Structure formats: C-alpha cells, structure tokens
Amino acid sequence: MTDRTKLSPAKNQKRAKKIEITPIPAVCVYCGSGHGTNTIYADAARTLGTDLAKSSLRLIYGGGGMGLMGEVARATIAAGGEVTGIIPDFLSEREHMLRDVDKLIVTGDMHERKRLMFENSGAFVALPGGIGTLEELVEQLTWSQLGQHKKPIVLANIAGFWDPFLELLGHMRDQAFIRAGLEVSFTVVPHAEDIVPAIIEAWKTSGKPPADAATLAKF
C-alpha cells in the first residue's frame, strides 16, 4: 500500500464557521463516480461536503475526482475541511484520482480499500450511486445486522433515489428473510442538509440510530 499525503490549497484559507464539534473521527461517504441524470444529486453532494467541513468532520471517500465523488470531496476542501481519499491502484486512472486532498491512500485491491474506509470512519453515508455504492452500503448494513459494529449508517434518499431499495428490504422482511432479532437499522433522510444532523444525533446514542426518530428505518 502506498500512502501519499498532500496539503490542500484550502489549508491556507480561513476555515469555515463550525456548526458543532463532535468526537466522530470521520465520515465515510459512498457515492457514484457519475453525476446521474438529476442535477439535485450533485447539489446534494456539494451540500454534504460543505456541512462536513463546517462540522469539523473529516471526509473519507473513494478517492476519485469524477461524478458525485469529486463533487463531495471538492466541496469539503473548498469549505476548509479535511479529506482522505482511498482508492485501489487499478482505479486511479479510470476514476481520475483526486490529488488535491489531505491524505491519499492507494491500495492494492478493493478489499483493502473497503477495510481501510471502515477502520478510519465513525459513520457511513450513502448518496445516490451505482452497483458499487450499493455493494458498499449493503456490506455495512450486513456487518451492523450481525453485530460487528454500531456505527451510524445514513441513507440519503435524495429525490427518492433509494425508494426501490427500501421496497426490496420491505419485501425481504415480508418474506421472512429478515427476521425478528436480525433487523436492519439505519437512518433515512430525504434532504442533504439533514445528513450531518442525523449522524451527530445517532452518534450521541452510542453509535445507533435513535429508536424514536421519525426517519429511522427498520427492516
């Protein structure tokens, strides 16, 4: 594994006004390497990046410079936040590896990438994305379901993007493949500005989404 550290130009700028200081080490954001067909997805990524910086939350992400990945990373940097990109070597050219980050880690394969993203993050957010985003999200949901972590997971259901996935989970529950005692718990928010407050609230309850929250999804 190669660990490359770069100082962002944003470090010489005045940091954004802080919203709230939290003990969360970093937030891992899963999202697409494309922009999708709805411009609201990119708007959401930029809003999230800005809010992470304002809340002094380091961004951990897939290291690419394209699509929503690039949008959330550049917005975090522009707002004075800190960014760590983790990308496997074989994707460094394909996804236009973003070098203007604080720390850039190039891994040997996808497994190492996902392990480092998990180990260095205290919460996870899924923005709209493709099958890779879905796979990363489902992995964290599975580990949580099996009691391997209690880190908050927030599903950013921007413009209803994740509705089909939520319907599928409901179908799995109805067919008894998600059984009592093995619920899948996470927080669903409809707007980008709701993401960081949801993470902070969940973190306050020992890394689990609050049971009485209106946005809590249980399947």
CATH architecture: 3-Layer(aba) Sandwich
The share of residues in helices is 25-40%
Q: Kindly state the number of beta strands.
A: 9
Distance between the termini: 38 Å
Strand content: 15-25%
Molecular shape: globular
**Mind telling me the C-alpha Rg?**
17 Å
Number of domains: 1
Give the low-pLDDT segments: 1-22, 207-216
Mean pLDDT metric: 85
Going across the major beta sheet, what is the strand order?
A: 1-5-4-3-2-6-7-8-9
String of helices and strands? EEHEHEEHEHEHEHE
Helix tally? 6
Q: How is the main sheet built?
A: 9 strands, mixed
Q: Could you please say which CATH topology applies here?
A: Rossmann fold
- In the CATH scheme, the class would be Alpha Beta
Describe the structure.
This protein has a nine-stranded mixed sheet, sandwiched between helices. The chain is globular. The protein is 34% helix and 18% strand. It has helices at residues 39-54, 67-78, 110-119, 131-145, 163-174, 195-204, and strands at 2-5, 26-30, 58-61, 83-88, 103-107, 123-126, 153-156, 185-189, 216-218. The protein has six helices and nine strands; from the N terminus they run ββαβαββαβαβαβαβ. Residues 1-22 and 207-216 have low confidence and may be disordered. Helix 1 links the parallel strand 2 (26-30) and strand 3.
